[in-house]
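Suppose you are handed a protein chain with no further information: no name, no annotation, nothing but its sequence. What can you learn? This example shows the usual starting point.
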Amino acid sequence: MLRRTSVWRAGKFTLAGIFIAATASAQSVQPAPDVAWPPRWTVSAGVESLWWRDAAQMGPPIDGSPVSWDGSGPIVYIAHDRGRRSRLHHFEGTFTVSGGFELRSPVRSTTALEDDGASRVSGRYEYHRYPWRDLWISGFDVGFGVEGAGDQMAFHRRFAADISLDRRITNLRTAGLLAARWRRSERWSLHAVWGNGITLGRSITDYRSDVEYAHQRWGGGWQSTLDVRGEVRVSAGARLTAGWFTSGEGRLESHNMHSFGRSRFTVGVSYGR
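A reasonable first move is to predict its three-dimensional structure. Written in structure tokens, the prediction is:
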């Protein structure tokens, strides 16, 4: 295990050295002009899947027990972007409702009771800086940024006719970001953002059986995210967009540890003059 950790760290330092050297070489080229981009609004819809495990490893990589509670449902996504080529302000909000849950393990899957369900509403702000523009090839920009976000998730689980659990989780998080963007022409563009950061929040749980009780816990953990988006221009102001997002979080609340995450795929339209 120690050898694997040492090799992994050596690999990360090697990649960082290669990136810094290549970046320094690329900066000898005349920098691209810092062009202002018009504000844009994006509206998308798609499908989001949710998983939950009742045990977690606190720290990257996100890991958990082999049994997970999995479901999926529709999602609505609204975003606003403004800035220049050298910097970007990104605002987004999402709402999703999940159902059709299953209990999955490496050997079998069991359908959960019909009224199992979850809902989530979230908001996120990202600030990106792109100091390395036209890196290696024309139109390829690399940068970094920060993120602030909050979300509220509620779910209902039924274990038997007279035994159920309701949980509401309110989360705040902050993260550092690495961003890459490829915009070779005005016709299309690709964006990728990788984030890692900490979360802090409150969980309220209600148990209902022959004895009912509720408790509140504060907790936090580590979250990793990956956001990939693409756009294709269809008119002077409109673009078709598609995006894939995934996240995972390991969380500790008092003596309770769990991990959860989600993945979504959305398609929509973006407009800006």
